[in-house]
Design a protein that fits this description.
By secondary structure, the protein is an alpha/beta fold. The chain has six helices and 13 strands. Strands 2-1-3-4-13-12-11-8 form an eight-stranded mixed beta sheet. Strands 5-6-10 form a three-stranded mixed beta sheet, with no helix packed on it. The longest helix is centred in the last third of the chain and has 12 residues. The protein is globular.
């Protein structure tokens, strides 16, 4: 069973529909006890960094997620903003993230190339790490759908599962032990995204 965390800031129904399509059992939850006892977790998010942390705090879900991820080593997949809040902080706000990954989020900026737009919105080919669990058996340079203005900068390259080129190299996936994240939207990325969700389900 994959539990999708609902904190009023994510496309949880779309994620569940994608898992239903794959034949994977899933549920949408916001109960602390269910989060603490979950088999697998998905933390998606659309919006601002501070608002995500604020909503999780208001719903009293921060401690439950820390317990599941750190104490129980529950596999968790962060999607878009859900990946960004796994790090320490973001230039987008002032609230601290979970700190599960030694990383900070920075604004995408191309002062010397006005042809590159922010936010990065559209399909991009990525370069996954060969031993990545999320991209197991992926085709060469798979394509995914992105929509974001901030990107994660990791302090430890070993945490990086994939990058893509957009004026510079940008991290688009992370993996460390039971912690996984993708900057793109797998639920909008057709067969490429379905393969990522299935690989997570099969961990």
């Amino acid at each position: 069973m994959i539990s999708i965390v609902d904190y009023n800031l994510g496309n949880v129904a779309s994620i569940r529909n994608a898992l239903d399509y794959l034949g994977e059992d899933s549920e949408i939850i916001s109960d602390t006890n269910k989060i603490k006892g979950a088999e697998k977790l998905i933390l998606c998010g659309v919006g601002s960094f501070d608002k995500a942390i604020e909503n999780l705090s208001t719903l009293d879900l921060l401690e439950a997620l820390n317990y599941a991820v750190i104490d129980r080593s529950t596999p968790i997949l962060g999607i878009c903003l859900g990946m960004q809040i796994m790090g320490n902080s973001s230039e987008e706000g002032i609230r601290p993230g979970f700190g599960w990954i030694e990383a900070n989020c920075k604004k995408i900026s191309f002062e010397n190339d006005p042809t590159l737009k922010v936010p990065n919105n559209g399909w991009r080919n990525i370069n996954p790490r060969n031993d990545s669990s999320l991209f197991r058996d992926a085709v060469i340079a798979p394509r995914y759908y992105f929509n974001h203005s901030f990107h994660m900068v990791c302090q430890d390259d070993n945490d990086i599962a994939a990058k893509f080129e957009y004026g510079t190299e940008i991290v688009c996936s992370i993996e460390r032990d039971n912690i996984f994240g993708v900057q793109f939207h797998p639920e909008k990325s057709h067969s490429f995204g379905m393969a990522v969700l299935l690989n997570f389900a099969n961990l």
